[in-house]
Write a structure and sequence with these properties.
With about 250 residues, the protein is α+β, with helices and mostly antiparallel strands. The protein has eight helices and ten strands. The strands form three sheets. The protein has a six-stranded antiparallel sheet. Strands 1-2 form a two-stranded antiparallel ribbon. Strands 3-4 form a two-stranded antiparallel sheet. Helix 4 crosses helix 5. The mean pLDDT is about 80.
Length: about 250
């Protein structure tokens, strides 16, 4: 808190008309306030992709552009993100050198498909291209544990996201049965069914909001592997593939 001095006029004996008035000085401790003037920001929409269907991809850019060397860069970055979120419902940070493909890769999940093989072969394929996610701790050990789990149900292929989704990894067991998770931030696995390619393109938040999307989410708590095994056995059995579920 800081000391502020207030100067104001006050009536003498409560009656300025009769007795006049005098200036009064009052000091008090107050909390400091930070004043932010309007920044004159502008939102500029740009159509990135129109495939002729029900949806289009639009990029929103906020100006002026930020410079990492400018004073209070982090404060202005947070401010800009809030402006974007409040006005568009979406946010993202890109370099001024980002290309059209860089933007589209963050909203469209394209899967790279690998044939099944030994654990070492799958790890080598998944860790080769794109490179291992930088924020994924113990990448090889994490993938190794997942492959051991998935192999018990004999997947037809392994999948990994490309581009900005390189941290997504999973296994496919049928045309309409896929399990995947995010290696960097995942606290759950997702089991997707029909139209899984389209459903997987949604962000985690949008997916959880979509009441029409057909998927199951299993949070990584103590017994998550057992619950996933039970679910996979049920789904494989419904597809006439129960023989591939090796859990008992």
């Amino acid at each position: 808190m800081v000391t502020k001095t207030y100067v104001f006029e006050t009536p003498n004996f409560g009656d300025a008309a009769t007795y006049g008035s005098h200036m009064h000085v009052w000091e008090r401790e107050v909390y400091q306030h930070q004043v932010f003037e309007p920044q004159g920001m502008m939102l500029q929409p740009e159509l990135l992709q129109d495939a002729g269907g029900d949806h289009v991809a639009v990029k929103f850019t906020i100006s002026p552009m930020l410079n990492k060397r400018q004073p209070e860069f982090e404060l202005m970055l947070l401010w800009s993100l809030n402006v974007l979120q409040e006005n568009t419902g979406v946010t993202g940070v890109f370099s001024t050198n980002a290309t059209r493909d860089d933007y589209i890769s963050t909203i469209t999940l394209d899967w790279q498909v690998f044939p099944p093989g030994t654990i070492d072969e799958v790890i080598a394929r998944l860790g080769g291209s794109p490179a291992r996610p930088g924020n994924a701790p113990d990448f090889d050990q994490h993938v190794q544990n997942r492959i051991r789990l998935f192999n018990k149900f004999i997947p037809t292929s392994y999948i990994r996201g490309q581009g900005g989704f390189g941290s997504y990894f999973g296994a496919q067991f049928a045309d309409d049965l896929v399990v995947f998770e995010n290696l960097k931030y995942g606290n759950a696995v997702y089991v997707l069914y029909e139209n899984w390619g389209d459903v997987s393109q949604q962000s985690r938040i949008d997916l959880l909001r979509d009441h029409d999307a057909k998927f199951d989410r299993i949070i990584h708590n103590d017994d998550w592997e057992e619950r996933l095994a039970v679910l996979l056995r049920k789904k494989l059995d419904a597809r006439g593939l129960r023989r591939r579920g090796l859990f008992r």
